[in-house]
Amino acid sequence: MELVYKTTVYAAVILVTMHYIDRQMEFANRLGHLFKLQFQGETEQVKMMAAINKIVLENIIPSHVVAYYLRSSRKHEDLYHESCSHVTVMFASIPNFKDFYQQTKANGEGMECIRVLNEIISDFDLLLIKKFPDVEKIKTIGSTYMAATGLHNGTLRTTEEGESWENNVVTMIHFCLAMISTLECDFNKHSFNNFSLRIGVNCGPVIAGVIGARKPQYDIWGDTVNVASRMDSSGQQGKIQVPEETAAVLVKYGFPMEFRGITKVKGKQPMKTFFLKQRKDSLKS
Ligand SMILES: Nc1ncnc2c1ncn2[C@@H]1O[C@H](COP(=O)(O)OP(=O)(O)OP(=O)(O)O)[C@@H](O)[C@H]1O
């Protein structure tokens, strides 16, 4: 009798212990599952924040430069700078914006004019997003829009003759024509204005880099940039002015060019410059 009693007690103890261990294991499993879910959620959140940061950065600096800054092996003090051998630089000004800009009570001390300028610049930005991903906006300087192509070697196109930097010049001219069309055909029509662009384009080597610890800015420097700016400032309203070497590339790709003459360019020897002859049909964006 005593043996049966003892056996029953042992069996009961073993059963209770096993049940306890089973509950503990189930609890540990559930906890593990919850931790896994939380970890997955947090990983997703970190990935989403990284993607948002990347998008924000790519709106400030070119994506290949963003990739450089996000590289884990980059040392904190490493500065980004790059020599780019074949870059096409463009400055596009709206010379008659100065006449339009007025600070009066009626237009909110100039607010209305800034709203118009913002609309124009945003239209140009939209062209980049929709049709010209290879064109890099550098910045706006007042009402001047500055952009470049060929800043990243990946933008060299493979043609029948092989990779060619000349496509960067052609892409830029198509972008210029689209800007003119957007401003003169679309914007002016619906806003009853008569803005026009004066554009300067030049190609050659530049140094690209990011400067500043706060509000860092991606920019390009060099004689190619200076001459592009001068092609704009010494140009004519409604025209695209380029120096001789750039004109030669455009002629090669079938763009009709008109010799302007020997143009005085501040800080340089007088140089041969050319205007692009624009046909009406080339202005369809
Ligand atoms: N990264 C840049 N961003 C904007 N403008 C630029 C840039 N690099 C050069 N420029 C412009 O190109 C033009 C020609 O430059 P350059 O160095 O030859 O002349 P400068 O004597 O410094 O300028 P300025 O005579 O206009 O005062 C200048 O108006 C300059 O502002």
TrEMBL record:
Question: Highest taxon of the source?
Answer: Eukaryota
Localization per Swiss-Prot or TrEMBL: Membrane
Give every Guanylate cyclase domain span: 88-232
Class of enzymatic activity (EC top level): lyase
- Which Pfam families does the UniProt entry name for this protein? Guanylate_cyc
This entry's Gene Ontology molecular function terms read: adenylate cyclase activity; ATP binding; metal ion binding
What keywords are annotated for this sequence in UniProt?
ATP-binding, cAMP biosynthesis, Glycoprotein, Lyase, Magnesium, Membrane, Metal-binding, Nucleotide-binding, Repeat, Transmembrane, Transmembrane helix
**Reactions catalysed, as given in the entry:** ATP = 3',5'-cyclic AMP + diphosphate
Cofactor requirement: Mg(2+)
Instruction: Specify the protein's topology with respect to the membrane.
Output: Multi-pass membrane protein
- Its EC number(s): 4.6.1.1
Q: Which Gene3D superfamilies match?
A: Nucleotide cyclase (3.30.70.1230)
The family classification in the record reads: Belongs to the adenylyl cyclase class-4/guanylyl cyclase family.
State the protein's name: adenylate cyclase
